[in-house]
Amino acid sequence: MSTKAKIALVTGGSRGLGKNMALAIAKRGIDVVLTYNSSKDEAEKVVSEIQSLGRKAVAFQLDTRNVSSFDNFIKQVTEHLQTKTGSPNFDFLINNAGTSLYAPIQEVTEAQLDDTVNIHYKGVVFLTQKSLPFLNDGGGIINVSTGLVRFALPNYSVYASMKGAIEVFTLYLAKELGARKIRANSVAPGAIETDFGGGVVRDTKDLNDYIAGITALGRVGLPDDIGGVVAFLCADDARWINAQRIEVSGGQAI
Predict the structure, then answer these.
(1) What is the pLDDT of residues 216-251, one digit of tens each?
(2) What span, in angstroms and rounded, lies between the C-alpha atoms of 159 and 116?
(3) Over the range 180-205, which residues count as b (16 or more CB within 10 Å of their CB) and which as e?
(4) How far apart are CA 175 and CA 207, in angstroms?
(5) Is residue 217 part of a domain?
(6) Dihedral pair phi/psi, residue 79, rounded to 5°
(7) The pTM is what?
């Protein structure tokens, strides 16, 4: 990796929105470290695609629900960066990795709730904490939330609640890290056609049509609608955007 290029760490970068974010960030001239949970081959394809854009990239395995693995993960990342750039530091942390929980509250189990907390809140908090010593002053943190924090659709109560917690966490990061000139913002996608949640939005025609019908721009979102916004927040043009929730939903449920 170039000593001059800025570097972004993107969790869950092997597919879906994370892949799109990683590619959009690379197109902004930023090198990328991405993580994957189980899809190593897909992650390596993203790495190759980023390299074809003329940027440096590398992929590491990470299960963001497994906080006990974070020290070793950070050691892997920082040793790699030290070897390649002469510094263990990076500039941007994008907390994107996640899974869906689509279930009515009457059916949510304790195990499901614990898993959602671990992935969407506990994991984000402690990965951020472990990253802070290696995050360059003047850098940024972008936490991926959801439009479901603002508008309610049935069966997302636990998932959306965790994202609401992350939006509050983001505000406090902006406050506490301001002295280091580190910005913290959350990006809240509306419904997007990906394999997220088993592809429920993409593959369920009635749901897709319903969401398109309540969206001002008349369609469901696509991954390409999101990645560029995250990449913009990593650019110097966004240097004065801090402590903001940026919804990217095409005007869903307004």
Answers:
(1) 999 999 999 999 999 999 999 999 999 999 999 999
(2) 7
(3) eebbbbbbbbbbbbbebeeebbbeee
(4) 38
(5) yes
(6) -65, -40
(7) 0.96
CB-based contact 107:22 (threshold 8 Å): no
> Which residue range is the domain that position 70 belongs to?
7-245
Q: Sorting pLDDT into bands at 50, 70 and 90, what band is 197?
A: low
- Which residues is 144 bridged to in the sheet? 187
Handedness of CA 217, 221, 225, 231 (dihedral sign): positive
H helices of the chain, in order, are 16-27, 40-52, 70-85, 110-117, 123-131, 157-177, 200-203, 205-213, 224-233
Asked whether residue 1 is assigned to any structural domain, the reply reads no
Other Cβ atoms within 10 Å of 206 Cβ, number: 7
Indicate which CATH number applies to the domain containing 233. Answer: 3.40.50.720
Q: Which of 156, 159, 172, 210 is catalytic?
A: 159
Q: For residues 186 and 170, is the Cβ–Cβ distance under 8 A?
A: yes
What is the Cα–Cα distance from 59 to 80, expressed in whole angstroms?
A: 11
159 catalytic residue (yes or no): yes
